[in-house]
Amino acid sequence: MMVMAMVPPNFTFAVDWSTGSAATTLPTANFSVRKLEAIVYMDGQTYAYVDIVPFSDPYYPASYSSEIGVYSSPNGLTGWKYHGIVVPRGPAGSMDSGGVASPGAAVAPDGSVLLGYAAEASPSGGINRGIGLAIAPHPLGPFVKQAAPIAKPLGVCGGTGRCDDVIMQSRPGGEVHLYHSVKGGAPPVGCACVAGPTTRDPGCV
């Protein structure tokens, strides 16, 4: 059976490569950029959260020990400005002491920004990677990490599994959903791995 998608008027799936230039490229200094997640905030600016991997990192080009930085643009295409790290690695012994990566971002109804991330306990990588959440009143921060993880390193992300690839979505009614992958393992049956600003799926922790 063929399913026909309804395409809005004046919308095309064609890629316009002619718009690519130095003006549309994220500026970098002594680091590379990995996974990117962008939001359009209520001030009209686009904010892009990315993995920052310094060239000086002993594990470079692997991104296990990365941190999360943020860029802004007035239109989401050009004029990108780097504002620095907004979610750093945690202290020794913490769930994310090895690195934070794979950011997902969404805006709550009150204007606060929710930033989900993969939490790496070891800077050299490995299994048992959890999912954390940081919240800020503005896209540039300051972000405060929540004490309770979305997914514990030894819960759904434990055993042979590791959690990664955070995606977040603002929903009608004020909910914010967080989705993530489980690599090398399998989530419990019926576990949606979805969380709101103040609630979380107990089966996914």
Structural commentary:
By secondary structure, the chain is an all-beta fold. Helices cover 0% and strands 37% of the residues. The chain has a four-stranded antiparallel sheet, with no helix packed on it. A four-stranded antiparallel sheet has the order 5-6-7-8, with no helix packed on it. The protein is globular, with a radius of gyration of 18 Å.
The helix-strand sequence is EEEEEEEEEE
- Strands of the largest sheet, in order across it? 1-2-3-4
The helical percent reads under 10%
How would you sum up the major sheet? 4 strands, antiparallel
Beta-strand percent range: 35-45%
How is the quaternary structure best described?
Answer: single chain
User: What is the count of helical runs?
Assistant: 0
| Rg, Å, rounded | 18 Å
Q: Low-confidence runs (pLDDT<50, min 5 residues)?
A: 189-198
**Structure summary, number of beta strands:** 10
The coarse silhouette is globular
Give the structural class.
Answer: mainly beta
C-alpha termini separation: 39 Å
Q: Averaging pLDDT over every residue, what do you get?
A: 80
